[in-house]
Amino acid sequence: MNLNQVTVPSLDLTKSIPFYEKLGLKLIVESLPHYARFECPDGHSTFSIHKTDSLPKGDGVYVYFECDDLDKHVSALKEKGIEFDQAPTDQSWRWREARLKDVDGNQLILFYGGENRLNPPWRIDKH
Question: What is the pLDDT of residue 24?
Fold first, then answer.
C-alpha cells in the first residue's frame, strides 16, 4: 500500500489554487468550483482540495510536506509573500519544521526529517 493523496477542504478554490501553486505544487486537475488536484514536485504523491460549505472546527488535519533544504525553501516562499506561523525550528523528535496555514486555515508543516523521518531511535520494529 502507498499513500496516493491527501485532500483538504476549502471554501473557495479560486483562492486556494494560487496559494498551493505558490507553494510549488503543480496543478494537474481543475474542476471548478468543486475540486482541484496537484502533483507534488518530488516523489509520486498528490494533494487535492475540495469545496465545502463550512470548515471543520478545531485544529483539523495537519499535512506535512518534506523539503530537503527546508531553510532555503522557506526563505524562497517568504519572498513570494507566504506567511509562516513558525520559522524553521529543530524539534525534539529530530525533525526541523516550519508551520503555516493555507487560506482556509488548514495546518501545513514543511519539514526535513532526514534519516529520522522513517527511522527514529525509538522506532518499533515488530516482525
Answer: 94
